[in-house]
């Protein structure tokens, strides 16, 4: 039986017991119908990935008996995705795909032309957790509450570079812009900023272009939806600046979990 | 009133009339409630984009009076996406995003570990048409009927290069592999080949690696779902080899259609 891979807030070390949430206990008991002692893989974003055994408790609860570490924690690039909320199916998709593509922070931003104002942060976080569990990631991106774009730019952290996808056109090609970065820029924390479907307002474009460490790029001759632009920019950034520049490790099948192929 | 952008099979030139399909007529009459004479933008993948006027016919039919060309047809990179069918929502998404990212052919491939055998080619084509209409693309990818991977490789067209995303790990980084291509390779037709969620069978991996013009690459340390890998590889290919290497044209707002921001 393949191990079920779960994210936990608990600290993980050999011999400890990690309480599972009610939702996790329900999933293992009633959806997966896993018996006591079933194999688990746990990660918390700090201690790497650990093999564990399911320990059923009473009628509803469950815990995990942690045995040995299967993967060490790895340092991931510090990459924010700042995106204007879009309608439900597409924003869920952005949370899922951005998690697979390695963002560390999902920051919804409200802009003048943002169509969607309400953001279900809890649901975005659930999508991010599920994507991390299913795709062997060792961490879960932080999902932040929506903030107005101008306020976000006004409080922008010193040294964090912006990759701005300029849907008004005229931006230099993304590959050339990223390939030409110096070592200091490559080593810096980054944020990818994607506009709403309606595009940035001119005041917002001006504010973005005035930022100290902004790199404005174009994503080709075809117009991309906001969600497509976000994923395309993330993939190009990881390939040219991020951790896709290292050869990919050859995965042992032990690392493939029962939810890894969903 | 902004123009509604529609794909048509008809030839387009000044002064001609293009019949609209029953579905297009219904959409314009009853969904968009467009009156006779409403502005349209038409493209057919051959003649560029043309301004036209809606001409209502009787109770159900509609045609378009074609007036002037708004954009010339552009030559796009010759890029196939060969992907194993995945469950409905994800395969629809692949068809939509691959269209935005500029593929010319969507080729479903059946592999030993392909979970989904049935593919609704008509629905995939409808998704591709809608994505092209909504994102200002001047062409629609051809959606082919599913074919067995080994047969596809056996009949592989001479000179078409393969970009193989190797989910077993150990592949060289995609950016380095694509940036290192010579001019002949860059000018060649290409295909991106993505495996099923279950991964390629070993015989399939061997056959792929034996292909003459194959470039096997890795997509970073995190495992990507098949649909994520397809979109990430497409974005990296367009950025490093395809038509994202040219500066993006600054779009006139005239080109933004009423369906462009859906």
SSE topology sketch:
The structure is a homodimer of 262-residue chains.
Chain A: E1 4-7, E2 17-19, H1 22-31, E3 39-43, E4 49-57, E5 61-71, E6 79-83, H2 88-100, E7 105-110, H3 121-134, E8 142-143, E9 147-148, H4 149-154, E10 161-165, H5 174-179, H6 183-187, E11 190-194, H7 202-210, E12 214-217, H8 226-240
Parallel strand pairs in A: 1-3, 6-7, 6-11, 7-8, 7-9, 10-11, 10-12
Antiparallel strand pairs in A: 2-5, 3-4, 4-5
Helix pairs in contact in A: 2-3, 2-8
Explain this structure:
The structure is a homodimer of 262-residue chains. Chain A has 262 residues and is of the alpha/beta class. Chain A has two domains: 70 residues, Hypothetical PUA domain-like, domain 1 (Ribosomal Protein L25, Chain P, Beta Barrel), CATH 2.40.240.20; 167 residues, SPOUT methyltransferase, trefoil knot domain (Alpha/beta knot). Chain A is 30% helix and 23% strand. Chain A contains eight helices and twelve strands. In chain A, strands 6, 7, 8, 9, 10, 11 and 12 form a seven-stranded parallel sheet that branches. The first copy, chain A, has a five-stranded mixed sheet with strand order 1-3-4-5-2. In chain A, strand 6, helix 2 and strand 7 form a beta-alpha-beta unit. The C terminus of chain A is likely disordered.
Helical stretch count of chain A?
A: 8
Predict the CATH topology of the largest domain in chain A.
Alpha/beta knot
Give the ordered list of helices and strands of chain A: EEHEEEEHEHEEHEHHEHEH
Give the count of structural domains of chain A. Answer: 2
Q: What is the total tally of β strands of chain A?
A: 12
Oligomer: homodimer
In the CATH hierarchy, what is the class of the largest domain in chain A? Alpha Beta
CATH superfamily of the largest domain in chain A, please? SPOUT methyltransferase, trefoil knot domain
- Provide the CATH architecture of the largest domain in chain A: 3-Layer(aba) Sandwich
Gross morphology of chain A is elongated
